[in-house]
From TrEMBL:
<dbReference type="Pfam" id="PF09832">
    <property type="entry name" value="DUF2059"/>
</dbReference>
<protein>
    <submittedName>
        <fullName>DUF2059 domain-containing protein</fullName>
    </submittedName>
</protein>
<feature type="domain" description="DUF2059">
    <location>
        <begin position="78"/>
        <end position="122"/>
    </location>
</feature>
<feature type="signal peptide">
    <location>
        <begin position="1"/>
        <end position="19"/>
    </location>
</feature>
<keyword id="KW-0732">Signal</keyword>
<dbReference type="InterPro" id="IPR018637">
    <property type="entry name" value="DUF2059"/>
</dbReference>
Amino acid sequence: MKKLYTLVLALLISFASFSQVDAYSEEVKKCINSNGTIGYYENVVDQMFAMLEQQYASQNVPESVWDELKGHKKASLEELSQMVVSAYRGHFTHQDVKNMNALYATKAGKNMFKEEGNLTEEDKEALTVFYRSETGQKITGSQDSMNEAMSKISEMWSRDFYRSIVEKLSEKGYNL
């Protein structure tokens, strides 16, 4: 009976831990959607495909093949999101990410990603208050290490995605 109780308890703890990890991941994904990170990488993928289409122009790759390959964009961005979650996990608590999302949901948070001239005095004050908070201080204090982590993630992800598309083209008989 003790073994059964221990097993059930272990399973409950595992499920609770998984649920918290999943909730953290979802909060980070919300955050990187709100702060423009995913939008930036969507543009990177689009530019990569434009470059590949130019590089493979002499191969006369049909539009249907390009459409099929572009269908991998969503999965690749999801993979990138998971990599970014790892970087966030090393720097920010779940509550920190929730605080970021709360900021990004405000008028000031939305305006901070637009041209600087769009910030009102009220927006500037709200941002000052946020960046003086514990979460704001973590963001400021971890900027260099986060930039380094994001740079490595970006390089690895873009290289791997480019290679996978080139391999898929090669499998279909299109080579440079």
